[in-house]
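Q: My labmate handed me this sequence with no annotations at all. I'd like to see what the chain might look like in three dimensions before we decide whether it's worth expressing. Could you predict it?
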Amino acid sequence: MSKSKIHDSAEAAKILTVARRYVFTHGFRTFTMDTLAAEADIGKKVIYTHFHGKQLLLEALIIAKVADMDRDLTAAQEAGGNFSKQMHAMFSVLREHAEEYSEPFIQDLLEVSPAFFEWTKNKRTQLLTGHFAKLFAQGRREGAIRSDISDDLFMTIYEMLTSGILMGRILKKTDTTVAEIYNQTVSILLEGTLKR
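A: Here is what I predict for the chain of 196 residues:
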């Protein structure tokens, strides 16, 4: 993937907001700069001054999404509380963010652009691994987590679950909503890791 950054002008922010709403709802197969120009009511030349192509714009969308998740997860952790309370808060944040992704967006990631899918997954995994490693360390300090469960195993299970939720694999197999899956995931992780 090429290098990209979050653009901070009001114009660029508007472009990103409109593109994000369109891409996460309809996918990026049908997404064009002409569509974006019409949706945002901004000339294509202006869009190209901020984003030099569709790929850079898509990367900027993911970077912005990851930054939003980072902000919201940090706020959930800084709100305090014990391990259990923070896990609930953090999974609530993840549920809200996952609900933004539509089936067309997920399918486009998987079918049209495997490289972009991997890049997106890696960005998200880096962020979430840091936050959940910190949460798990807190649980260890509190003595809330079973001693026979390793940190590595917890993180591996967590990554598989969240990846399955994000990419829709669990949704297809369970015929349930994102919110229900996240609630059940919290329950499973807490029941499986907490000391009784």
